[in-house]
Amino acid sequence: MSNNNDITQSLPRGEASDALDEAFDNYLKAVEKCGEDLHSIMIVKDGKVVKEKWLGEGDRNKPHILYSVSKTFTATAVGLAVAEGRLKVSDKVIDFFPDKLPAQINQNLKDLEVRHLLTMSSGHDVDPTMKVYGNDTCRTDWLEVFFAHPFEHKPGTFFVYNSLGTYVLSAIVQKVTGEKVLDYLYPRLFRPLGIVDVTWDESPQGINCGGWGLYLKTEDLAKMGQLFLQKGNWHGEQIIPESWVIDATTSKIESLPAGTRREWVKVKAEDSDWLQGYGYQMWRCRHKGVRADGSDGQYIIILPEENSVIVTTAQIGDMQEEINLIWEYLLPALQ
Fold first, then answer.
1. 251, exposed or middle or buried, with CB in 10 Å at 0-12, 13-18, 19+?
2. Cα angle vertex 270, ends 115, 319, to 5°?
3. pTM of the predicted model over 0.85
4. Is-contact 209 203, C-beta < 8 A?
């Protein structure tokens, strides 16, 4: 969707402390030393942008691929639809798509609720997302792929990072609202925040991918982080229900890094930002923070105790190392 007729609203700018100026310079030096391909970083403190930088392929005015940061926006659409009475998190998923189900379904699939999709606990033993890629993707119905994959666990009991599950959330929103998630969010989220030029990839069935495929600018991400920091309130208007923000950012289930199993994890919880728990398409992280994150280093990190938001776009494989540098250099200067 092109929203060029709307007015972009920038976040207010402020002055960084001397400590943050020094920390930011040291952080950028450490990033360079580590060979990390950082594209942008923006720091918001007390509601004002106090540091920002674009590097490499980063461009202030160009939307960046977000990968799984998209999930937080899909979950927000679910929250808004819940607030409007269009669905409940306790709704059974199979009731939305009776024509997409396999001939035989087990009790686990029958018990699957919207809340389980939100918390990556649908009951799959492994993520089925890769099954929608390949030479036959244009003839593949992604909902049918999701439902055909074995549901081996009781929903709500077993965490498996599942991007196709987020696609199902997108499809549910489209089913109950009659609009694609992008179009549904535009007047409810993007326009109030002054976010324009939004695009979102779709499945062959014309449904926004949900778990990936959203493109936004760095400052757009900072606005989303600030909105969550403010419990869904924006300039005195409650854009997202406060209760939803609290639910989304509270740990609902023990989490694991994508593509791993509990028995494979050797790192201690205190050393990993992927073992802090998972809410509604958002990760808890160390230092009492919460984040949206996407492959290769896309972050919206919300730090309530510091009243701060840190956003990055990047092409970085080791995302734990990326966030470690943020904790080492930037966090102390925000406290």
1. middle
2. 75
3. yes
4. yes
Q: 205, 125, 213: which is closest to 166 by C-alpha?
A: 213
At residue 145's C-alpha, the angle toward residues 291 and 248, to 5°, is 20
Closest CA to 301 of 229, 242, 236: 229
Dist. CA 335–CA 323, nearest whole Å: 17
Query: 242-249 vs 218-229: helix axis angle to the nearest 10?
Result: 100
Taking 50 as the pLDDT cut, the residues of the chain under it are 1-5
Backbone angles phi, psi at 237, to 5 degrees: -105, 130
pLDDT digits (tens, 9 = 90+) for 238-259: 999 999 999 999 999 999 999 9
Rg (CA), the chain: 19
CA distances from 166 to 16, 73, 116, 134 (A): 37, 10, 10, 19
**DSSP collapsed to 3 states, the chain:** CCCCCCCCCCCCECCCCHHHHHHHHHHHHHHHHCCCCEEEEEEEECCEEEEEEECCCCCCCCCEECHHHHHHHHHHHHHHHHHCCCCCCCCEHHHCCHHHCCCCCCHHHHHCEHHHHHCCCCCECCCCHHHHCCCCHHHCCHHHHHHHCCECCCCCCCCCCCHHHHHHHHHHHHHHHCCCHHHHHHHHHHHHHCCCCCEECECCCCCECCCCCEEECHHHHHHHHHHHHCCCEECCEECCCHHHHHHHHCCCECCCCCCCCHHHCCCCHHHCCCCCCECCCCEEECCCEEEEEECCCEEEEEEHHHCEEEEEEECCCCHHHHHHHHHHHHHHHHC
Q: What is the pLDDT of residue 2?
A: 41
> What CA–CA distance (Å, rounded) separates 53 from 218?
10
Placement of tokens 């244009």 in the chain: 138
Cα–Cα distance, 234 to 220 (Å, whole number): 14
